[in-house]
Design goal:
single chain, about 425 residues, TIM Barrel, ten-stranded mixed sheet, two-stranded antiparallel ribbon, 19 helices, about 45% helix, binds iron/sulfur cluster, iron-sulfur, metal-binding, iron-sulfur cluster binding, iron, rSAM
């Protein structure tokens, strides 16, 4: 399997792009994690991976999206994005996740990539704006991987994403990216309506056949103004997704990403461990894209280094949450976020202004934390990589108190649980 994977990378992608990914994502990425660990030992903090939602606008209207895509357009201007990236680079960062809205609606996006050829970008996109011309420019940059979201078969995808033809346009974007030999990923927010179609060997085999190099399965999180809880997965379905990810990693020549487990299958939240934080379209610094609360901004006068180091809001978020659960706080303990917002006077970073009410309306449910049902990695490579570079960096050992954990499944009766859930944002 590893040989087949190596062969695919060697023969199916542009060698220059592959070399850049290995250097910036592999070597420099590991170095940034190493610097993060050293900072933690000294009691300092700066997340080694930053996500930036560069624009709120989107051409789609997906079920369960938490971004105010129909509000007046707002974006992180080129200079502000450049300043943020430069300051993160000084801290050793070499990888940036770019989200929206739909990032390709930001007119300066490609210029941003061209300006920062020494770091690597992963763009979360619906693929609709990836034409051959755009893909050629991305190939020329060499430092960008599009992560294109597919949310189901044609009918399901078009329902999830708000209109006819979405699926076909997305597939056209994937094909344009692949024709131009980009390193392409496909992601899915797994929910009740797509789990049977996409969490399958058949779908992964098709991605491999197309030339897709990696896939990413998120779990649908019922948040935002229209959470669509009927789409959320039950605990059993979430364990099924985890088992599928572990098995696929060990058997198929495609990289599979998930961001919720360490090598032993222990659940974690990458925002709580401090692995990532997020900058929203208005410049607000949030724990993660779906937690739309902040006390700081990239537009503040302070250097970013000091902002992350001194933010009591983010520190409290990490410690308070880690004390109560290893899962996703917005799914399991939205009340903690309300408490945190009140304590720190955190502002609602949405245009709609209803985040606290939305949090109060969330019905708690289990997330990636499935105590007693941990599924360890089967693949030696993933096991090693996670041991070194993707784990909790001691966060839960320091803070988690099993006595304080409240199992959401204990509170929700079975029929209600089946009705709970949400779709993804794109
Ligand atoms: S809080 Fe939930 S959605 Fe945010 S990073 Fe953690 S697990 Fe993911």
């Amino acid at each position: 399997m590893y040989l087949r994977m190596a062969r695919r990378f060697a023969l199916e992608t542009d060698k220059r792009l592959l070399a850049k990914a290995v250097w910036m994502l592999g070597v420099k990425g590991l170095r940034s994690v190493h610097r993060h660990k050293r900072r933690l030992k000294k009691g300092e903090f700066f997340p080694p991976f930053l996500y930036m939602s560069v624009i709120n606008s989107c051409n789609l209207r997906c079920q369960g999206c938490w971004v105010d895509v129909a509000a007046k357009q707002h974006k992180i201007e080129l200079d502000a994005a450049t300043r943020t990236i430069e300051q993160a680079k000084e801290m050793g960062n070499s990888f940036f996740g770019i989200l929206g809205g739909e990032p390709f609606m930001h007119k300066d996006l490609l210029t941003l990539f061209e300006r920062h050829r020494d770091v690597y970008f992963q763009v979360f996109t619906n693929g609709h704006f990836i034409t051959d011309d755009v893909a050629k420019r991305l190939r020329d940059c060499g430092n960008v991987t599009p992560l294109i979201s597919v949310e189901g078969s044609e009918i399901i995808s078009d329902t999830r994403r708000g209109r006819d033809g979405v699926y076909n346009q997305t597939m056209a974007g994937i094909e344009a990216a692949l024709r131009n030999k980009l390193l392409v990923g496909v992601c899915t927010s797994v929910c009740k309506s797509n789990i049977d179609d996409l969490v399958t060997d058949k779908w992964v085999d098709r991605l491999i056949e197309m030339g897709v190099m990696y896939c990413w399965f998120h779990i649908y999180r019922p948040v935002g103004p229209e959470p669509n809880p009927q789409l959320a997965l039950s605990s059993e379905e979430q364990r099924r997704v985890r088992q599928f990810v572990v098995d696929t990693r060990a058997t198929k020549p495609i990289v599979v990403i998930d961001a919720y487990h360490d090598d032993a299958g222990n659940a974690l939240c990458p925002a709580v461990t401090g692995f990532t934080h997020h900058v929203g379209p208005w410049g607000d610094i949030e724990p993660c894209p779906v937690i739309q609360l902040a006390t700081e901004s990239i537009h503040d006068d302070r250097p970013l280094k000091d902002t992350f180091n001194e933010s009591t809001f983010l520190k409290d978020f990490r410690e308070l949450t880690a004390g109560e659960t290893r899962g996703c706080v917005i799914m399991e303990r939205p009340d903690l976020l309300v408490e945190l917002a009140e304590k720190h006077g955190a502002r609602d970073t949405t245009a709609r202004g209803g985040v606290i009410e939305e949090l109060k309306n969330v019905s708690p449910r289990r997330s990636q934390y499935q105590p007693g049902d941990e599924i360890p990695e089967r693949s030696l490579v993933y096991r090693w990589a996670k041991k070194y570079a993707f784990n909790d960096f001691g966060t839960y050992a320091r803070h988690f108190d099993a006595q304080r954990y409240q199992d959401p499944d204990d509170k929700v009766d079975a029929p209600e649980l089946v009705q709970i859930g949400e779709p993804s944002r794109r």
